[in-house]
Write a structure and sequence with these properties.
The chain has 195 residues and is an alpha+beta fold. The chain is 32% helix and 34% strand. Pfam families: DUF1949, Impact_N.
């Protein structure tokens, strides 16, 4: 089971006179991660280090800090709390005291981990899409019953002979929803999943 953030969060810590500003937000794509980083990175800061994870895809950057001392510890903070679909940025304003490699790893990873630990989270629910065609006479009943299914949303496109329903549903619910649709329409409608 994976979790993501419920909303954007931010936290500031001072470590040996350096100021670390951690920010994180949920994302749905690599483009959203890049947009967040571009918008939130501070060009006047010494370093804008970051990491993001979206399923099996992840990236991180040390932004001029010694290799492995910033981006990777931030990514480990994300993974250590079973988070997904998230980007974390830690901006550092140097305070004049060198932290060393171990100190940098603790500062970046610890700042990110503390912020994420305190943040409100929600479960990531893997979704899939499908389509179904139904007649106008079946539409009201089908919509009412399908909308009662947890984590299911639908949109409709009206056509001359009936309605095409585009269904977004939780992965694993496909067979149950397909059976419900068949039963409600006496077999006239069926759920079509992507190939």
């Amino acid at each position: 089971m994976a979790f993501t953030l419920a909303h954007e969060v931010e936290q500031v810590r001072e470590i040996k006179k350096s100021r670390f500003i951690a920010m994180a937000t949920p994302i749905g794509s690599e483009e959203e991660a890049r947009s967040f980083l571009a918008a939130r990175s501070n060009p006047t800061a010494n370093h804008n280090c970051w990491a993001w994870r979206l399923g099996q895809t992840y990236r991180f950057s040390d932004d001029g800090e010694p290799s492995g001392t910033a981006g990777k510890p931030i990514l480990q903070a994300i993974d250590g709390q079973a988070l997904d679909a998230i980007v974390v940025l830690v901006t550092r304003f140097f305070g004049g005291i060198l932290l060393g490699s171990g100190g940098l790893m603790r500062a970046y990873g610890g700042t990110a981990a503390e912020m994420l630990r305190l943040a409100e989270k929600r479960e990531v629910i893997p979704m899939t899409s499908a389509e179904a065609f139904c007649s106008f006479s079946d539409l009201a009943l089908v919509k009412a019953r399908l909308q009662a299914v947890d984590h299911l949303t639908l949109s409709e496109t009206f056509e001359a002979e009936g309605v095409t329903l585009t269904v977004s549903l939780r992965q694993g619910d496909e067979a149950r929803v397909a059976e419900l649709l068949r039963d409600l329409t006496s077999g006239r409608s069926r759920l079509v999943l992507p190939d």
